[in-house]
């Protein structure tokens, strides 16, 4: 049975008296995170080399993430961050000078900067007009897709506004055009669940923090079976070998699985954290969880708009798990909320409110009413 209160009580007792609406940035401390760090330190205190346990955690994190997205562990690479994951993808795609990378206007800099830097190979990065309805966005994508497209990149959700992109429809278009598609699921996975077999994307990237409830330090890269890179990996390391523990400095070989994209030693604390967080997430009923989070989103929008607070949204689109408010003085409102023990996520001229499975309707009502009252007292 899905119960946000039980999830909160079991894992987030530290939130007593504190409202955390910032999972779009980083998740709060949890009991399973504390337990993971205690386990790691305990493993380091045993009378044998801790690397044995670190390797076990690496494979456990890989297996659990694969289970979470409906993949096989052999399809998952573990990398330091989403930036390197994106680079590993684009740098191994066959592409001729003049070909284009299609992305959105909501691309996170971790990815868009990597795409733009492919200009050194003669590739052109083009943004699909995105501040339009889902229907128009799909039409725009269809219009721009062509034989000169080497990659389509689309986020599950906008890191700025929380707009949930129609990734299922865009993936279908890319597949029809036989163009590789990458889904950046970092801003939403964990609040919702994705099955990559059903989505049929070629690549999916997601880090271990934000809605995934872990620590920064690693990112997962899903690689669809059957993808064979004819461009050799330029960025590699000992973890990307067929037999890493052979420690052969003269042999650079690559396994057939997604591990070929890996580089050096991963961030061990983040591995322990990811395993514990995924174990907790896998206990949830995500069908009910998605409904719960959407209810919180709609509740917040209803209260805020009635209080004349502007929500950044595009007609004909949906939200994932956070919303963004237009605020004339974001630092002032952020400070005001922190004084009331409410943690939110400022981003430029916007203040983001993110909702997770541990959040309740009562704290959303409390926060939104406080924001509305604050707006009424201000002369902007």
From TrEMBL:
Presence of the UniProt keyword Heme in the record: no
InterPro entries from the UniProt entry: Aminotrans_V_dom, PyrdxlP-dep_Trfase, PyrdxlP-dep_Trfase_major, PyrdxlP-dep_Trfase_small
Ranges of residues in domain Aminotransferase class V: 54-310
MF (Gene Ontology): transaminase activity
Coiled-coil positions: none
Keyword line: Aminotransferase, Pyridoxal phosphate, Transferase
Pfam families, per the entry: Aminotran_5 (PF00266)
Matches recorded under PANTHER family: BLR3095 PROTEIN, CYSTEINE DESULFURASE
The protein's name: Aminotransferase
Native source species: Photorhabdus khanii subsp. guanajuatensis
């Amino acid at each position: 049975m899905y119960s946000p209160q039980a999830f909160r009580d079991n894992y987030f007792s530290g939130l007593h008296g504190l409202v955390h609406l910032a999972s779009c940035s980083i998740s709060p401390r949890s009991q399973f995170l504390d337990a993971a760090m205690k386990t790691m330190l305990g493993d380091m205190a045993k009378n044998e080399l801790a690397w044995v346990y670190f390797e076990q955690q690496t494979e456990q994190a890989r297996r659990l993430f694969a289970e979470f997205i409906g993949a096989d562990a052999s399809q998952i690479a573990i990398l330091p961050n989403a930036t390197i994951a994106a680079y590993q993808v684009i740098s191994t795609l066959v592409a001729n000078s003049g070909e284009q990378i299609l992305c959105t206007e909501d691309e996170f800099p971790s990815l868009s900067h990597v795409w733009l830097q492919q200009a050194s190979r003669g590739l052109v990065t083009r943004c699909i007009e995105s501040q339009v309805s889902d229907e128009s966005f799909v039409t725009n994508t269809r219009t721009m897709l062509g034989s000169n497209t080497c990659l389509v990149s689309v986020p599950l959700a906008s890191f700025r506004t929380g707009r949930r992109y129609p990734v299922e429809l865009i993936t279908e278009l890319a597949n029809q055009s036989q163009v590789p598609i990458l889904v950046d699921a970092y801003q939403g996975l964990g609040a919702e669940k994705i099955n990559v077999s059903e989505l049929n994307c070629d690549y999916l990237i997601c880090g271990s923090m934000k809605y995934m409830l872990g620590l920064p330090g690693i990112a997962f890269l899903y690689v669809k079976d059957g993808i064979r890179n004819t461009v050799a990996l330029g960025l590699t390391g000992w973890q990307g070998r067929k037999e890493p523990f052979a420690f052969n400095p003269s042999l650079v070989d690559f396994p057939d699985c997604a591990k070929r994209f890996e580089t050096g030693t991963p961030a061990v604390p983040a591995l322990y954290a990811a395993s514990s967080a995924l174990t907790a997430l896998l206990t949830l009923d995500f069908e009910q969880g998605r409904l719960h989070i959407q209810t919180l989103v709609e509740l917040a929008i209803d209260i805020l708009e009635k209080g004349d607070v502007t929500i950044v949204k595009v007609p004909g689109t949906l939200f994932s798990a956070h919303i963004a408010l237009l605020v004339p003085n974001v630092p002032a409102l952020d400070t005001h909320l922190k004084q009331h023990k409410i943690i939110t996520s400022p981003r430029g001229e916007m203040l983001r409110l993110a909702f997770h499975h541990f959040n309740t309707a009562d704290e959303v009502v409390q926060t939104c009413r406080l924001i509305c009252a604050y707006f009424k007292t201000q002369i902007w």
